[in-house]
């Protein structure tokens, strides 16, 4: 299914954590439970990893394509992940410089892009103090939490990042460890060549 419509660009600032049972209990105390859903994400790239080596993440979720583009913060300086989110086919076609007279699916296929990972996960969503909290359990046995804040102003990202880190610290969460998202952890376990390519490109630490 192709998704077309108005431009809807957001900036996502998020920090990932691996939680102990006690940390999870403390973080979720007083949080509003927004629901639980099953996710099936299919990630796309070409054989040279041209997207992911630039920290560009293209996926299909529930039949809709989404692209996360980095906000040009070097990985060694990055405290939290910062991405511009593209959620319409038109935006994604333009960003990838693909022909706009084709459907996104056809343009990706003709451009040499194909799936490299399919990850099923259960996500529990919460809202607390203005922050989104996602708890994901992937089908390959990986559990990760994200504290997220959305903004539409790039100039506010540093302030948002500080607030996320302060908020996490107030709940006893440490920010020192390198925590991978689901897809990077999947590659670490299942595709060492792709994982190493990301390390070589300094997309991940």
Keywords for this structure?
205 residues, alpha+beta, Hypothetical Protein Pfu-838710-001, eight-stranded antiparallel beta barrel, 26% helix, globular, disordered N terminus
Number of strands: 8
Question: In the CATH hierarchy, what is the superfamily?
Answer: Hypothetical Protein Pfu-838710-001
Order of helices and strands: EHEEEEHHEEEHHH
Instruction: Output the structural class.
Output: alpha+beta
The CATH topology corresponds to Hypothetical Protein Pfu-838710-001
Shape: globular
What's the structural domain tally?
A: 1
Q: Mind describing the biggest β-sheet?
A: 8 strands, antiparallel, barrel
Please describe what this structure looks like.
The chain has a single domain, classed as Hypothetical Protein Pfu-838710-001 (Beta Barrel), CATH 2.40.320. α5 packs across α6 (192-200). Mean pLDDT is 88; it is low at 1-8. It has an eight-stranded antiparallel β-barrel with strand order 1-5-4-3-2-6-7-8, surrounded by four helices. The protein is an alpha+beta fold. It contains six helices and eight strands; from the N terminus they run βαββββααβββααα. It is globular, with a radius of gyration of 17 Å. The chain has helices spanning 21-28, 89-95, 104-110, 157-170, 182-190, 192-200, and strands at residues 10-17, 32-45, 57-61, 64-70, 81-86, 114-128, 131-138, 143-151.
Layout of SSEs?
Elements: E1 10-17, H1 21-28, E2 32-45, E3 57-61, E4 64-70, E5 81-86, H2 89-95, H3 104-110, E6 114-128, E7 131-138, E8 143-151, H4 157-170, H5 182-190, H6 192-200
Antiparallel strand pairs: 1-5, 1-8, 2-3, 2-6, 3-4, 4-5, 6-7, 7-8
Helix pairs in contact: 5-6
